[in-house]
Write a structure and sequence with these properties.
mainly beta; binds MU-OXO-diiron; 7% helix; TAT_signal; nine-stranded antiparallel β-sheet; PhoX family phosphatase; Neuraminidase; globular; five-stranded antiparallel β-sheet; PhoX; binds calcium ion
């Protein structure tokens, strides 16, 4: 074991070619198995999935949610664990039997129930080697309606959080993280899209504009639930945009929104430690936004021993990248730099509620949609996917515009993740040399829009892609050769990249976690055939992404699902 053990080739598998087929493709000698698709009952006696989408909101509360995303397996042993995963959003053409033309409270409730997080026990059958979900007292759904609480500098006592209803729910949970003390971090990304209003007198203030709030919204929940009406309940939106801590081993515990980590469109929350302190990296996934890190104050073990949260005490920083390959972490601390009373800031809670504006004020570097972060288990280098965008930030955004994205990497000073300076380079410029000669990738490695990213314990860097359905498989968008979204593995030392898995049509590949022995890899297939299928009114006019995976039932619907990959000889994944 150990990252990059000398003399050992990290990537031992035979790369798979690109694919436009509506199936999962894995290398020779590997097998993929579908687990817990959307609608799977959480307990064996729970409501069965109905393929015509006639399950009620009450049914959905007791079923696996939709659009699986970030995920972590908390091991209970070599052959079992608590699979904890995000459900990012709902596809309203697929969620309801009669479509979404008319919005009712029942429909809003069903959508809320399909969002959030699932905790489900999974076990490997010793004989067949297959994984299955099983009944357990830990099995749980956290949804858009679950009671939640707040901790850190912004609490429920703060005026900004005094909305008209009880604190509840987490929404648009995209990527995630996990802590060394055994909890899960669900992140709230595009939460602004759930709020709207019919009130013509409502207009966004500067802060609401900065977070993308608008009267018109595709979900239209406000038509049936005043909780989401910007004019009638203007403070509810301040309860979203946070990192949410969930203890999968305490099924009755309330999720806690950890406000010290800031409020933005959190893609993920990647946790590492240095000198006993906790460090959390988080991208704000929008074109021209920033990457942040939180550094805990004092040793996290001491905090836990004293019954405190290591995520409630510390400093939030935002990154500045300079064209000489260096960078610095700028503190978002009330009273420092531009963030003073004279600059219009009230206190630390104000800085955190308006994190994006605070980051603007200190002069952070705009990036091309910062998505996931991964920390190398050996040298602690940090890798960040910049999925695509305008080509922001000078040298750190070298392709202008940037339809394929790239991965930037940095070494924190002295290999210490709490350091406030770093040196960066570009690990890979994604894309296809047929469309951009600056891309140095062979047929086995071409890809676009890197998004999910993570290391295994041996130091392989796993890269997942999220090419949008408006570009996927379209030559006119430069995506004619790249095929469906995929999972690749890379060797960070040599730069070698090889395609390991290709997903079905119209899906992104996201979420990444391993069994304790490294011999099973779990990934999520999100939004196969998103809004393109025969049962709904197509909203994406791209026939190359139509899917009916994984059921292939003409009367059914495509369903997001987890996929487990094992090596037929029982070996470690990627060897
Ligand atoms: Fe939910 Fe940034 O992808
Ligand atoms: Ca993502
Ligand atoms: Ca994405
Ligand atoms: Ca997604």
């Amino acid at each position: 074991g150990g990252p990059n053990k000398p003399g050992k080739k990290l990537l031992g598998f035979k790369a798979v070619p690109t694919s436009t087929a509506d199936e999962i493709v894995v290398p020779e000698g590997y097998t993929a198995q579908v687990l817990i698709p959307w609608g799977t009952p959480l307990h064996s006696r729970g409501p069965a999935f109905k393929k015509d989408a006639s399950n009620t909101a009450a049914d959905q509360e007791r079923q696996i949610g939709s659009n699986h995303d970030g995920m972590h397996l908390f091991p209970l042993g070599k052959d079992s664990g608590l699979l904890t995963l995000n459900h990012e959003y709902v596809d309203t053409t697929g969620l309801y039997a009669d479509g979404s033309e008319v919005i009712t409270r029942e429909k809003v409730n069903k959508a809320l129930a399909a969002h959030g997080v699932s905790v489900v026990k999974v076990e490997r059958d010793r004989r067949s080697g297959k994984w299955k979900n099983v009944d357990s007292r830990y099995n749980r759904r956290v949804t858009g309606s679950t009671p939640v609480t707040f901790s850190g500098p912004v609490t429920l006592k703060h005026d900004a959080l005094k909305s008209n209803n009880a604190p509840q729910g987490t929404l648009n949970n995209c990527s995630s993280g996990f802590t060394p003390w055994g909890t899960y971090l669900a992140c709230e990304e595009n939460w602004n899209s759930y709020f709207g209003t019919e009130d013509a007198s409502w207009a966004p203030d500067a802060e609401q504009k900065r977070y993308g709030l608008a009267a018109a919204t595709a979900y239209r929940w406000h038509e049936a639930d005043e909780r989401f009406d910007l004019a009638k309940n203007p403070k509810e939106l301040n309860r979203f945009g946070w990192v949410v801590e969930i203890d999968p081993f305490a099924p009755n515990s309330k999720p806690v929104k950890r406000t010290a980590l800031g409020r933005f469109k959190h893609e993920g929350a990647t946790v590492t430690e240095s000198k006993g302190r906790v460090v959390v990296y988080s991208g704000d996934d929008q074109d021209g936004e920033y990457v942040y890190k939180f550094v805990g104050e004092g040793r996290w073990r001491d905090r836990i021993r004293r019954g405190q949260s290591p995520l409630d005490h510390g400093t939030l920083y935002v990154a500045k990248f300079t064209d000489d390959g260096r960078g610095a972490w700028l503190p978002l601390e009330f009273g420092k730099g531009a963030l003073t009373a004279a600059g219009g800031w009230k206190d630390q809670a104000d800085v955190l509620l308006r994190t994006r504006t605070a980051a603007d004020a200190v002069g952070a570097t705009k990036l091309d949609r910062p998505e996931w972060v991964a920390v190398h288990p050996g040298n602690k280098d940090v890798y960040l996917t910049l999925t695509n965008g305008a080509g922001n930030g000078g040298a750190v955004g070298p392709r202008k515009p940037n339809p394929y994205g790239h991965i930037v990497r940095w070494s924190e000073k002295n290999g210490d993740n709490t350091s406030l300076s770093f040196e960066w380079d570009i690990f890979v410029l994604s894309g296809d040399p047929a469309h951009d000669p600056a891309v140095k990738l062979g047929a086995e490695a071409i890809h676009g829009s890197p998004d999910g990213i993570g290391f295994d314990e041996d130091g392989r860097l796993w890269i997942q892609t999220d090419i949008s359905n408006s570009s996927q498989n379209l030559p006119s968008k430069g995506y004619g050769n790249i095929g469906n979204n995929m999972l690749l593995a890379s060797d960070p030392k040599t730069g070698e990249i090889k395609r390991f898995l290709v997903g079905p049509r119209g899906a992104e590949v996201t979420g990444l976690t391993f069994a304790a022995d490294g011999r099973s890899l779990f990934v999520n297939i999100q939004h196969p055939g998103e809004a393109t299928t025969a049962w709904g009114t197509p909203t994406v006019q791209n026939p190359r992404v139509v899917s009916n995976w994984p059921d292939f039932d003409p009367a059914g619907r495509p369903r997001s699902a987890t996929v487990v990959i094992t090596k037929d000889d029982g070996g470690k994944i990627g060897t």
